[in-house]
Structure formats: C-alpha cells, structure tokens
Amino acid sequence: MAVEKPNIRSTYVIDWHTARWGRGKIAPAPEYVVVHFTGSGGKGGTAAATYKDWLLRSKNTRCNTHYLVDASGVYECVDPKKYACLFACVSIPADRHIQLYIDGNGEASPQACSHIKVAGNYNTINIEACSAKRTPVRKAPNAYMDTDFYFPDTTYRNLVALSAWLLDSFGIPLENLIMHHNISGKLCPAMWCNNRGAFEQWAAFKNDVALVLNKPVTAGDLPAPDGEGTESGTLVTGNVRVKEGDPIYLDPYGIVVGYVESDRVIPYTFERDGMYYTSLGYVKGGG
Known about the structure:
The protein is an alpha/beta fold. Helix content is 17%, strand content 20%. The strands form four sheets. It has a six-stranded mixed sheet.
C-alpha cells in the first residue's frame, strides 16, 4: 500500500536558481532525501519567516529547498524533479561556523561527511524543517554546538510524514534518508548530531519514518563504517560468536537497534574497541 501523501501547499515558491545552479534544470532521479533545520529559535520558526529571510539575501547567496516544513504544514518550494540550490548541501570549511561534533576524547562525529562522495545537490531531495530553541539563538561561529534545539511536535510529525512519502514515491530506500551532517559535517539538524547522545534521536526519527513505511528499521538501514584510517578502526575479516538476546548496535558508542535472534557465529569486516561490524550491525565480541 502506498504511503498517504501529506497535504502539500505551494505558498512559498522559491525557484530562483542562478545560472550557476541551473535554473529550472531537471535533476537526475533522486537517490537521497536530506533533512536540514533552519536554526531558528523561540517556540518554533515558520516557513514564512524562512522564506522572507531567503528573499532578503543577495542573488549570489540565495538558497532554496524542495520543501519547507513547519507546525502549520508542508510547503513545496521547488519541484523535486528539479535541482534545488541549498548551497549548504556541500562541504564547507570548518572555520565558517561549520563545526564537527567532537567528544571528550577528541573524536569527530562518526557520521560527519559519511556521504560526501555520493550525495549532493545533484541527486538529493532536500527538506528544510523549522526548528525551535529553549534559549535564545546566539550569533556566534559555534552557535550550532548548542544542545537545546528541537523540533516542535507538530513540525516533527509533518517531517516524518513528508519523509516517508518521498521515500515511497521515489523508490528511495530508508538507508538513503540522511542528515545534512552526513554530507558536509555541518551540525544540521543540530538536535540530532551535536553530541553523541543526539544520534539516538536521529535513530528514533528513522524508526518513526519506518513505521509509516511499514518497514522495521534494521542495522542495515544505518551507516556502515568506511574504515578509512587506523584511528577509526581496522578493516579486517574474521568470525565472532553471538548469543540469542545479545544487543545489536548502530555504532561502537552504544545505540541499540535490535537484538540477536539466535546463537550463531557470523563474519565481521570491521573491528573497533571490542565491537565488530557484521551483517546484523555492530555486536560485542566473545558472546
């Protein structure tokens, strides 16, 4: 059964591509749906305010998105079959308010730039969701490091509904629903990637989208390790024993996405800190 289409309005049409971005150009078949946030504060930003802000930008810096989502609904700004020029959907130097999440051990986010080589404006459908914030928005280079951004409940529900419908309509697999953070390293949406615990909320969002799709999320729907560099782990092969009921993790940091169904020995292709990446996801060794 097809996913029900949300009520989509065209109040804020912002198809203002410059020649650089190919005005009105038909894009290749989309391969990814990318979630962004507006960085707005208070009790929640609005599509109208975001539209106004973008209108005020110079022609050289204007950006747009396929969809704007707020508490009032879903708005299509650019035909998803065309390019959008969310200029931030590329890698931007870290000294321009683009901050990688760094934990207490000095390790960068395990998901930052995980899709930099495979996703960009050319093959993505972009959703800009209006955020809220519990404290005032700071005008500072590292403002995205704040941990009190969130999506109001109604905005969140609209985002889930739109994401599920887009995946279903364009035949895009659930694993290709990603954050802007996965492409550029920018903390976007900040509430889902600005600290280690925030990734649990991203996993919960994907679970909610999976429920609409009637497809249970598995570790295979979440990013696998790339194995680049010895500091992040080691690409090795071998076998590891697991037992029924052992947890399956999203990553080596303890986000559980499921449990082993039966005792077995399974091959792994990546090891880090006693955690092994298998066809199930990450498991602990020595079960």
